[in-house]
Every structure is written in C-alpha cells, then in structure tokens.
Amino acid sequence: MIKPPLPASRDDITASWMRRALVAGGLADCAPVEKLVFEDMDAIDQGAVSDTFRAEIAYRKGGGRPGPETVIVKLPTAKRSVRRTSWLMSVYKVECEFYLRIAVNAPVATPALLYGDFNPKDHSFVLLLADLAGMESVQFRDGANPDQVMTAIRAAARLHAAFWDREGSLVLARIPKFASLWRRVLLQLYYLAMLGHALDRFGDILRGDMSWLAEAYGPRLADHFADLAATMPRTLVHGDYRTTNMFFAEPSSSEVTVIDWQMASMHCGLYDIAFFFINSVTSEIRREIERPALEEYHRIICAEGAADISFEECWRAYRSNILAVLMPLIVGCGVVDISDRRMAEGMDLLLKRLAIAIKDLDAGKLLPSPRPLLSPARMFSLLSAWGYRVRRAAGKLKRR
Predict the structure, then answer these.
(1) Which residue has the higher pLDDT, 82 or 201?
(2) Which residues have CB under 8 Å from 81's CB, separation 6+?
(3) Given a cut of 80, is residue 396 above it in pLDDT?
(4) What value, to the nearest 5°, has the Cα angle with vertex 90 and ends 99 and 82?
C-alpha cells in the first residue's frame, strides 16, 4: 500500500490514516481501524519540541489481523518559535534518521518503529512507535537508584563503543557534529542571551563562585565544546540522556529502553555520562557511585575495541563535560516558565546538583584558556563577552 500523506496535526490522524500507516510499516493484513482515542503525554516529561501523544486503537472484527492496541505518535510541535528552532537544529531530521536508519544497528533498546516518514523540505514528520506502557520511567526529582545508574551507564557505553570513531560511515552520514563551528557559535550566543535571565531568576544558586563561573564560561563556550570534541574520537551520543527518556522493566532491571533521540549527534561520549549524572542522580548517590560507574564505562568501551584511552583521560573528560552541562541548564533557566512552580523548582534542583558536582570535581579549573589574541576564536569570544555586558547593563538600567 502507498504510504499515507504526512499529517499536519493530530486532526489528520484518522482511523483510515492509521490503518494505511500500519500497513505501510509492515502490518500487511492489518484489520480496518474503527476508532481512535488520543491521550496527551505529560509535557514536562516528554518535552515541548514535539507533539507526542498516545493513540488507543479499536479494530473492526473479521477484516484482518488486529495491530497494536496502542501506539505513541510524534509530530512537530504547533508552536512556531519552537518549530523554527527545531528546524535550525535539525532535531526532527535527526530523530527520524535515527529510527529509520540507525536504531536497527544500535546496541541499546529503543521503541520499535511501526511507521515513520520525513519531508526534508519543511522537516514535517510522523513517527509511530511501540508503546512502553507498563515499564517504569524514573522522574529526575527522585533520581535513579544505584542499579538503574549502572544499567544506564552500561547502555551508554555499549552505544558509544558501537559507533566510536565512525564519523565517516554511511550509517552516520546525516547525523550532525555537535561541535561544528556554526553550532558552537549559535550555542555560545544563545547561552549568553539567556545568562542574564538565569542569573536574575536563580540568583540564590547562581551567586559567588557559580555566578563568576557562569559568566566566565559564556565567552569560552565555543572553545570548550571544540576542545571536548578533540579530547577523544567522536561517537554517537544521545544528547538528552536522562531517566525521563528511559524506561526500566523494574527498579533493579539490567535492561533499559531509551527514547527521544532528537538531540543525537557526533560528540564526546562522556557528555552523555555527565548530563545523565546531573539530570538523573541525586548528589548523594552520584558521590557514591560515579567513580565505579566511570570505571565500568571505561572497561566496556575498551573491551569492545572502541578506544585506547586511559581511565585518567576518561575521568578528566567526564569532569570537563560536567562543566559543559552549564550550557543546557543555563539555557533552560533562561527560557523556563517560572510562573509554573513545578518547572521552576525542577530547574532549581538541577542547578543545585550541578553546583555541587562542579565543586566536588573541581570542574571549574577546566575552564578553557583564552585563545591567541588575534585568532578568530578570541575575537569572537571578546565580542560576545562585550555584547553580553552591554545587554546586561542595559537590562539593569531598564529595571530601575
């Protein structure tokens, strides 16, 4: 059967469309779909980049073989500003590329793809994914337990080992480099644009040494991410590796299913590990388990032939990536709706975890040194720092 047209919104997901999609996805004798019932997903957990919802499917009897009773549907968000940013960062393209071409080769469990389609002209897309209802997703406020931490670290190690230093392979040809020049420039400018808002909103945490570090890091962010990418061979990273994007069969499960691959890129694998510890693990458990977890990560990637690096190099890269987590958290603090108490408290908690980790690991000492005075990188750093100071001063004058 010819594939169905790309839906512009969930209103276009009709019973007829659903059957056509399931047939096009491989369920050739799918029974006619009689009725669909949609259920919204928790926006805080599944993110605001896509419109993600569950579809409950009722099939007509006697007309073929019933398909899945429920599926997860992902479409582009209806928010224009978010959709523009998503187009710019290729997040829809990346996730579709992952599910359509890479997931089958990835040594980590992902939701089964039932149907997918992507339009490269306008980045419209649709994904029908197997529903993981019945599995457990750990909220970041609670934090993963030690068994779940080790399960997640082992899964990341297997993923990174499988794609280690394979940047030129055909299967990864359409996955962007996280630290490409234009991305580094864009991220530095975006970070500095959000930094003032973050300092104003979360000044109780971003004060003293943390305030100084956040402001010192901004003009050197692009240099730092360039250094991270050069630390060791690049691999496929998830980019948003946290428990709210994971499902465990049970609290002590040795297997994990990872969802939401929109931020996947080629980058230093330790970014996933650092991001996970800040976003998914309490400070107490992190202190207890991070070194054994990193030793396990190092053991796996070396055993699978991915890297000839020492544990000391791996540990330093982890510490440096802890510093890099400033980027997503500062941006998040700048854009979060602080009138939503739950979201504001969530950002407050993550900032506290990051501040504690930076202090524990002395990560502030890994701030990159300034580039040579007349180099393009140094000029960009100086100009962006000047722009930030002007904007910050103007903001303070306006509030008087």
Answers:
(1) 201
(2) none
(3) no
(4) 110
CATH number at residue 97: 3.30.200.20
105, 130, 155 — which closes off a domain? 130
The pair phi, psi for residue 236, each rounded to 5°, is -80, 120
What global pTM score does this model have?
0.93
337 contacts: CB under 8 Å, gap ≥ 6: 343, 344
Closest CA to 116 of 124, 103, 131, 127: 127
> Beta-strand (E) ranges in the chain?
33-40, 50-59, 70-76, 113-118, 125-130, 235-237, 246-248, 256-258, 265-267
Give the C-alpha separation, 180 to 399, whole Å. Answer: 37
Boundary (domain end) residue, out of 83, 100, 130: 130
Measure the CA–CA gap between 281 and 350, rounded to whole angstroms: 10
Domain identity same for 54 and 102: yes
Query: Contact, 291 vs 163, CB < 8 A?
Result: no
Domain span at residue 27 reads 10-130
Kindly state whether residue 246 falls inside one of the protein's structural domains: yes
* pLDDT-based confidence at residue 42 (cuts at 50, 70, 90): low
Cα–Cα distance, 332 to 322 (Å, whole number): 16
Q: What is the CATH number of the domain that holds 301?
A: 3.90.1200.10
* Backbone CA torsion sign across 237, 364, 349, 332: negative
Higher pLDDT, 80 or 143: 143
Would you state the structure tokens that stand for residue 162, as one six-digit string?
């499988």
- 94-137: per-residue pLDDT in tens? 999 999 999 998 999 999 999 999 999 999 999 999 999 878 88
The three-class DSSP label of residue 3 is: coil
pLDDT, one tens digit per residue, over 206-249 is 999 999 999 999 999 999 999 998 888 899 999 999 999 999 98
Q: Are 262 and 309 in contact (CB under 8 A)?
A: no
